[in-house]
Amino acid sequence: MDTNLNVGPTFYTVGEVARILRVNPVTLYRAIRDDAFPAVRIRTRYVVPAAALNELIAEVTASGGCVDLADLIAKRRMEREAGRVAGGASW
Question: Where do the Helix-turn-helix domain residues begin and end (predicted)?
Fold first, then answer.
């Protein structure tokens, strides 16, 4: 029996993330398809890892201002490419 009631979801729907970020879901879907926002595709649906959203929120909080999502995306792509070159998992 799970006694910890304060545990949040592991994944969010695109609609939930769009509401949290106060953006149009279409904008978020476009960013996901352009590999500009982290998501997991399950057949025809996308879900966003809570860890990715928490990382974005932590980055904004730490910087104390506006975070350039393009920089975060570039960093994420570089890390993924480095993992592929090193023989890590492709996802």
Answer: 11-59
Domain membership flag for residue 40: yes
C-beta separation of 71 from 60 below 8 A: no
Q: Are 14 and 39 in contact (CB under 8 A)?
A: yes
- What's the predicted TM-score (pTM) here? 0.69
Give the whole-angstrom CA distance, residue 8 versus residue 11. 9
Give the pLDDT of residue 73. Answer: 73
Please report whether residue 75 resides in a domain. yes
Residue 90 within a domain:
no
Find residue 48's DSSP bridge partners.
12
